[in-house]
Amino acid sequence: MLLKHIIRDSTESCQIIVTRSRHYIYMDINLLKLFSERVRYEMSQNNLGTIKDLSKATGIPRTTINSWLNQTRSPQIESLVVLAKFFDVTTDYLLGLQEI
What does each C-alpha distance from 89 to 18, 57, 95, 97 come to in angstroms? Predict the structure, then answer.
């Protein structure tokens, strides 16, 4: 069985799924929207005008970033950590689980 465990936040709106090869975050639509808004906000605060700029700065593929901003895909934990370090914020902030 690939699924090792699920971690839920107190509102049960965010789940972390851990498998042998990947760590996925499944967010409800409200958190996905908030994540997208916060990535856009941090991009503007860091003078990154395009998805290409963010991709170049972080090494995250443009298609992945585009899917986050279009709210069609949740981030993998590894990418979330890269973003948080790059923007100098917490992963909880990006996920909408805390304010700055």
Answer: 23, 16, 11, 12
Beta strands in the chain (DSSP E): 5-8, 14-18, 23-27
Q: Please name the residues in contact with 22: beta carbons below 8 A apart, sequence gap of 6 or more.
A: 76
11, 14, 19, 39, 53 from 46: Cα distances, Å: 31, 27, 33, 10, 10
Please report how the helices 62-69 and 29-45 are oriented relative to each other, as an axis angle in degrees rounded to 10: 120
Give the span between the Cα atoms of 32 and 12, in whole angstroms: 14
* Per-chain mean pLDDT for the chain: 83
Query: pTM above the 0.85 mark?
Result: no
Angstrom distances, CA of residue 8 to CA of 17, 85, 93: 9, 23, 16
DSSP code at position 8? E
Q: Which amino acid does the sequence have at 17?
A: I
Which residue ranges form the domains of the chain, and what is each CATH number? 29-94 (1.10.260.40)
